[in-house]
């Protein structure tokens, strides 16, 4: 396993070492001991989630507030997505900046998204299976989000707006500027 820093402090790309032969392939998708050693982070994942989505489905940009904030380790087990993390830490040098990466079933990369980040993804393939580990339990009262097309963030979602499918809840999320009002 190789861990690569992103431009956002505390946000990491995890690249597995893949072993292939005539039978197929094998890789270790997560090892807590190696993760802690390489990132210097203490993490205790308590909840695993999975979504299955069609091309153009955009889920995000979501986060949980306060004591219910979640760090996430995300990966795609089928298909391809553009995954996006936005730094919401007011004291951070990269506050309001985002990082995006294609996660797919070919590269098998994972993205570690720290607490106090917004997170979202859009499906680029016909279908995608998206998995994520969370270090805190979901609490409906703490959920929040930022509208995907916020002009201050300027995220390039790689698809035309006419191809993007949103839930009713994600259509009415707040702007980045309205976060702390």
Number of helical regions: 2
**What coarse outline follows from CA principal-axis ratios?**
globular
- Overall mean pLDDT score? 94
Structural class: mainly beta
Which features would summarize this protein structure in a list?
mainly beta; Jelly Rolls; five-stranded antiparallel β-sheet; about 40% strand; 2 helices; about 180 residues
Helix-strand blueprint:
Elements: E1 2-5, E2 12-15, E3 19-21, E4 24-26, H1 32-39, E5 47-54, E6 58-64, E7 72-78, E8 80-87, E9 98-104, E10 110-113, E11 117-123, E12 127-134, E13 143-145, H2 168-171
Antiparallel strand pairs: 1-2, 2-10, 3-4, 5-12, 6-11, 6-13, 7-10, 7-12, 8-9, 8-11
Q: What does this protein structure show overall?
A:
The protein is mainly beta and 181 residues long. The chain has one domain (2-171): Jelly Rolls (Sandwich). It contains two helices and 13 strands, in the order ββββαβββββββββα. The chain has helices at residues 32-39, 168-171, and strands at residues 2-5, 12-15, 19-21, 24-26, 47-54, 58-64, 72-78, 80-87, 98-104, 110-113, 117-123, 127-134, 143-145. The strands form three sheets. It has a six-stranded antiparallel sheet, covered by helices on one side. A hairpin with a 6-residue loop joins β1 and β2 (12-15). It is globular, with a radius of gyration of 16 Å. The N and C termini lie far apart (41 Å).
